[in-house]
Amino acid sequence: MIRLVRARAAHWPTTVPVFAVVLLVFAWGRDLPGPVVALLACFLAGAVLAAVHHAEVVAHRVGEPFGSLVLAVAVTIIEVALIVTLMADAGDKNSSLARDTVFAAVMITCNGIVGLSLLVGSLKRKVAVFNAEGTGAAFATVATLAGLSLALPTFTTSAQGPEFSPAQLIFAAFAAVVLYGLFVMTQTWRHRDYFLPMTTQGKVIDVEEHADPPSKRTALISLCLLAVSLVAVVGLAKGVSPTIESGVAAAGLPASVVGVVIALLVLLPESIAAVRAARRDRVQTSLNLALGSAMASIGLTIPAVAVASVWMEGPLLLGLGASHMVLLALTVAVGTLTIVPGRATPLQGGVHLALLAAYMVLAVSP
Q: Where is the Sodium/calcium exchanger membrane region domain (predicted)?
């Protein structure tokens, strides 16, 4: 009996996306009662976990650093789809949703995932070791993208409010795509060795040693199921989004909390993957996941919402407020000091987690 239960449980990444799509077909375009919304939310969470599971299978097949790239892009596609879906439904009411979600993703990845990975890795082996060249290049790209896309709109004068003019938005979207493309080329081709995991002794690991890679057939099946999972996530999110927004409003919380909820939803499974890698003395893989997700979040979301803004009504607010600008500046400064040595102790992990805690407090009580 126990073996039967375990065998059936092992198939959940296959069955959950399929059931989620079936449920989506029956629930699409209908006014849903509370119990049905709760069921949708459960399958939404399951579909997110299944998507990341299949992304990890594909990632294991192609190896590092391609694996981190696959997982980061898959998670970001979920995020972009959720943002565009909610913005299209709500119009002016969610004009700042892209900014809130992207900034939440930057804070969660650059402080939450990075801090937790460094803390776990250094507590297990006294010091967390990573390649400062590759990690520094990734962090510099994230800082540049965040500055151009989130900080600069606050100070421009061509449009009223913290938003870009059409020409400025086109430039920001183009710059985001180009920088992200250059980073992907650097990570996967010209300087791939900068992003390979390292042991505490400084040994570069070019091949994962803990398990054999899946077969080509298994990887292709996971790739197909990954696409099914992403469709389920986008559709189910559209069904539960009114409940999320009304719940945030009923609790008296700022509208920006919706962006935090979206970022937490799509990044939680990736956070688990990063912690697992840190426990296996693969801190570089954890940092690849964190910074790759932050970079993809900006580099793919900003161009996507720029294109979507052509047919969506209302302004597209991208500029950060004063308190968030301070948090972004602290994150860049602290992150730089953390990465330069190529080694970190629990103190650095704790400092990053403190910045994430400050962001969460200000999100609820600005």
A: 37-189, 222-363
Instruction: Check: CB of residue 130 under 8 Å from CB of residue 117.
Output: no
Beta-carbon count within 10 A of 263 CB:
26
Question: Using CA atoms, how far apart are residues 171 and 92, in angstroms rounded to an integer?
Answer: 23
Contacts of 232 (CB under 8 A, 6+ apart): 17, 20, 21, 24, 43, 44, 47
Q: Could you give the 3-state DSSP secondary structure of residue 5?
A: helix
Q: How far apart are CA 105 and CA 267, in angstroms?
A: 8
Distance CA 76, CA 145 (A): 15
pLDDT (tens digit per residue) in 286-300: 998 899 888 888 888
DSSP 8-state assignment for residue 344: E
SS3 state of residue 204? strand
**Unique residue bearing structure tokens 């930057």:** 106
CA terminus-to-terminus distance, the chain: 53
**Shortest CA distance to 269 belongs to which of 226, 219, 330?**
226
3-state secondary structure of 348: helix
Count of all residues that appear for the chain in the document: 366
CA 263, distance to chain mean position in Å, is 7
Q: Write out the two tokens for 313.
A: 């009504």
pTM confidence score: 0.82
Q: Answer for the pair 116, 276: CB distance below 8 angstroms, yes or no.
A: no
CA distances for 75 relative to 1, 51, 69, 348, angstroms? 36, 8, 10, 26
Which amino acid, 295? M
Contact (CB, 8 A) for 121 and 278: yes
- Give 224-257 pLDDT, tens digit per residue: 888 888 788 777 877 777 777 777 778 788 877 8
For residue 306, what are its two tokens? 């720029």
CA–CA separation, 286 and 34 (whole Å): 38
Topology (CATH) of 2-364: A middle domain of Talin 1 (1.20.1420)
Q: What is the pLDDT of residue 91?
A: 57
CB atoms within 10 A of CB 294: 30
